[in-house]
Amino acid sequence: ALGIKAPKRAPVGEEVTIGVFARLTQEAVEGAGVWAVSRDRVEALQQEAQKLKDDPGTAAEEKDYEAIVKAHGQFLGRTDKDGQLTHTFRDAGIYVLVAVKKGYFPGYAPLAVVVKQKALSIKVTPPQTHVGKEVTIKVSDRESNDPVEGAGVWAIARDKAADLRDALKGNSGNATDERDYEAAIASRGTFLGRTDADGKLSATFTTPGAYVLVTVKKGYLPGYTTLAVRDMPKPKPTTSDNRTGLRQAKPEKPELRPEARPVKPGNRPETIPAKPGNRPETIPAKPESRPQLPPNTN
User: What global pTM score does this model have?
Assistant: First the structure.
């Protein structure tokens, strides 16, 4: 039997590489034909192939599975010496790849061909700001990073973001080009404007809060980012000295007056020289000495 190695998903318009190998030996098989069969015809194909396999009247190497597959699918090509071929799908759809070569039972592999959806990317600078301060918003293609002109941008309170996601999911059944994202967003947010040729937009917020910024343009999936807007900080109170840049002088220490020592009665106070800046200090005088008289012998 044959085996097929291929991606399970492939975008429309992009080349896909398909490999075919022998299941028993795991070796590449050259010259195997590969078909793409739509999912609604796979069951009938497999029944016919199984019937031919069980037919005892035909030798295994003579059984022509290719004739059966031709009636059900689109021929993509034959494998090279490395057991590979490349193909570019032009239409989206769910397919089963079928590999066939005489002497082998067919190999099968599922493949979903999808339309590659473009998506927007949004960036706000700075991500945190104050009321009345201008921010710059840039919208670009998520894959190529090229600026996107004409993209609408809305600001939505963060507590309404979950409700918005649910509303956008309701459009998931439509193709990207047909989804009306703007209608769902406009009823839930504040329109800030559309991007210029450089993919940029400037905005100023007057109300503080936590916001989700959403950008939308037809043909793209929406882009999201967050922004925090705070009140302007209040100026800190300052003294007049601080405003003039002068340092406040330290208060002078009060001048200490010297204490007077008490003078005993009958003593004359004696003064001593005072130190500069101090008042003279009064100290008690020494008692005066009187001369002693000799004793009277008469």
Answer: 0.52
